[in-house]
Amino acid sequence: MSGALCFSVSPTLICKSQDHSKANNKEKPCPQPVLDNKVSKRKLLSSAVIGLGPTWAGLSVAQPTRAEPDSPAASTSSRMSYSRFLQYLDEDAVKKVDLFENGTVAIAEIYNPTLEKIQRVKIQLPGLPQELIRKIKDKNIDFAAHPMEISWWPAIFDFLGTFGFPLIFLVTLLLRTSTRNSAGGPNLPFGLGRSKAKFEMEPNTGVTFEDVAGVDEAKQDFQEIVEFLKTPEKFSAVGAKIPKGVLLVGPPGTGKTLLAKAIAGEAGVPFFSLSGSEFIEMFVGVGASRVRDLFNKAKQNSPCLIFIDEIDAVGRQRGTGIGGGNDEREQTLNQLLTEMDGFTGNTGVIVIAATNRPEILDSALLRPGRFDRQVSVGLPDIRGREEILKVHSNNKKLDKDIYLNVIAMRTSGFSGADLANLMNEAAILAGRRGKDKITMKEIDDSIDRIVAGMEGTKMTDGKNKILVAYHEVGHAVCATLTPGHDPVQKVTLVPRGQARGLTWFIPGEDPSLISKNQLFARIVGGLGGRAAEEIIFGETEITTGAAGDLQQITQIARQMVTVYGMSEIGPWALTDPAVQNSDVVLRMLARNSMSEKLAEDIDHSVRQIIESAYEIAKNHIRNNRDAIDKLVDVLLEKETLSGDEFRAILSELTDISSIEIDRTPIPEMIEA
Length: 672
Ligand SMILES: Nc1ncnc2c1ncn2[C@@H]1O[C@H](COP(=O)(O)OP(=O)(O)OP(=O)(O)O)[C@@H](O)[C@H]1O
Ligand SMILES: [Zn+2]
Hints:
Distance between the termini: 43 Å
Strand order of the largest sheet: 10-12-13-14-11-15
Structural class: alpha/beta
GO biological process, one term: PSII associated light-harvesting complex II catabolic process
Organism: Canavalia gladiata (Sword bean)
Number of helices: 21
Shape: globular
Radius of gyration: 26 Å
Cofactor: Zn(2+)
Mean pLDDT: 73
Low-confidence stretches: 1-77, 147-154, 161-196, 321-326, 577-583, 660-672
Largest sheet: 6 strands, mixed
Bound molecules: adenosine-5'-triphosphate, zinc ion
């Protein structure tokens, strides 16, 4: 069994000095590096999605799944043994390596001389061998390690079965990919030789700015482009130079495609679209000619808008792997650059390209005259979420006790696509339950389902169920008794996804700005499950169910030391910003470039944080045994305890006066 715990540590802005308890303490964002959520999220989902298919050249060929291009699930064609992979590495055939899952899985792009094309293969690594890292570095291979998840979903601790850890995220991915598949045409197996990269043309998208909510600034930025597309001649007449290319940057599902469609819709011009990731599976020369076709067609239909989704798949830095400028991707990129340079003056064609990884783009793409403007869309804040929920509840029947602002509060970390999905799921549930309106029950159930997966089969009574109950109550009690922790929303033994039990928390006001105190409290809360197992059942009876918890708390502790400067080592960023969230890189690469003493100091500080948190957690369990026993009894009987029920029992049997536990989890409902 492995367990999981999904904190809502939002990586965007973390400020050590932040103290929410003080009045008038204006929140000042600290200029902290931004972690790449998308990649990290995809990472966790990945391996389970890859299925096996027929074989090619001694490799088993998997069906591609329509996932993000850099997840192990994405268009990965084959599996390869580690020893075989080393051979290819020695033969200089490996072009790019992406490491996932703490360095246990690699996705490599390898040149296949028989087919004369690059293939993506998945390799299960025996841990992360130093030898491999050295080879990759020596050969100067394009290489990236993808971070472990620090989730920005509402926090939950869970107790999962084997392989459960990635599954919570898998569910989310599947929901997302299935939405995409339905919109994105057929899913062809890899290597059938049929090019999927056909551009699409919509004469009229029918989307307007009203359909895109919570991104007012971006809409403002695009107003000028809309005006230009409406009447290009007006601008040409006065000699105005309009940008040709705009880079739209933001995490997945934040409405980039929708926004681009809305620009075309507002201006009433045709919308041409193409996805960068589809070029990767094409034969040499096809990508470039598609780009040429696309631009020719666009020029004939000007004024119009070209939208290139996932431009990073094509637009990564050139010249990093072997093969010089000859591979398919580079040819495609070169063609794109040529086309961008090709239209002189105001041709009435605007190109918008979307990415969530602007930092990996070839700088040539960003030069003046190409994608020289950037517009960002981020995950929506609470107000943005409410606006988006409004858009997606327009055509739905809602019960009168549904308050969109309350839903917005409960969905911290959700993207626009997640919110659209949420409303749709709720409508489906209401239909299935024979209701004529969506009620808060359907909304609650859909949130749970999106975050933690489908409801599973209930556990049978017995020792394991009691153990899970103690584990979850341990999380809830330790979290509640540690100042700075988010309040418990509910504790449940109703299984979801692979989780057998779950403890949910309500994220604080601003989950993107977290203090040292709050991070430490999360470590104590995260260790509460294991602490309960050890204290109640004895040291030899602790289970594998806490594995996920341990992984997450270790990562938080490591980040406190190396990223957020929250240890006695001091306010240093001890990792390369590009790889900061990755344990594997920390251990294997960063160690190479830092002194042995510093590496030891880091380990020491991490250990200190975790050990002191574990002591605190164990003491909470020891000192509150009566309350915990009672809570477990009630939980076993009722299966789910609301935050209020939980706090009522806890406060009866514990001296918790010093702890702020009466925070009302959901503020008074206001008419939405
Ligand atoms: N700001 C928003 N307002 C309203 N709906 C939104 C918004 N953002 C996303 N959605 C909903 O989510 C769906 C998917 O969003 P979209 O494909 O535009 O996101 P994206 O940023 O392009 O994602 P990706 O990077 O994964 O391609 C939209 O069709 C819409 O239903
Ligand atoms: Zn747990």
